[in-house]
Amino acid sequence: MVREGGRELTEEELKPFEGRPAATAAEGKDPVNEPMIRHWCEAMGDTNPAYAGPDAIAPPTMLQAWTMGGLSGFEGRSPAHDELFALLDGAGYTSVVATDCEQEYLRPLRPGDAITYDSLIESVSPLKTTKLGSGHFVTTRMDVRVGGELVGTHRFRILKYTPAARESAGAAKAGGAVKKLRPRPVVNRDNAGFWEGVGDHRLLIQRCRTCETLRFPWLPGCNACGGQEWDTVEASGAGTVFSYVVMHHPPFPAFDPPYAVALVELAEGVRIVSNVVGVPYDKVRIGMPVRLEFLAVDEELELPVFRAVEAGEV
Domains (ranges, CATH) in the chain? Predict the structure, then answer.
């Protein structure tokens, strides 16, 4: 059967991939090490004392980091993964998006641990239709070991799909032209208060009621002491560009590349990812002072952005 953009694959074509190894006895490029732990914790704003000092452990969520091959790839990869992707690409499912991951931790990792891992293609779904388009969910499972001992399992799921050939939901028409809308933020019970604050033009930062540590993005518990009770403080709006990237590719509807995406360090000490406005993308610099403002990107959505502060501005 031929669908718009590609051919519908049969169960007989897809099921043989399930259970096939994607990597066997592969080795992490580096042992678990303190510099990488420090970089991770700085990027995440995680100050848990368990991740520093002579008895340090690695943050559990770094499990996959120790197995990454980098731009040069890694040894031990089997052909099954490439064969499956070639089949999906050939059938027209050429786009890919990561959908979710699951991790199980069996013991902490410590500096000096040498990582080995095996991964396999755990499942390939029948054809599914999503808002993005039609395609197949592919789940891989990675078993991570130290000295032959299983220390954790990482499941990673992607969607290989053909983009839907239709207007995005809520596309607005003006003067005969179709204007694509920005993707909507996912609002849940853990971050609803943040978005309510944005609606009132207030940037709210969580504060632990036990140790008074500020945290951002919003989390259900304190990453310093584990406390579950919290209140909020309102950001002053002052900040500096801590780091940034310039997005050139791929293009997305409602976005006009190139544009700068910055990690802004607020005066309160926490960091937020946002856009820098009021200056060309190629003029954004680390250390640049910025100030919060709220941008109405369409009739229903406002977002916090940061405007570059000119020399001498207050």
Answer: 2-163 (3.10.129.10), 192-308 (no CATH)
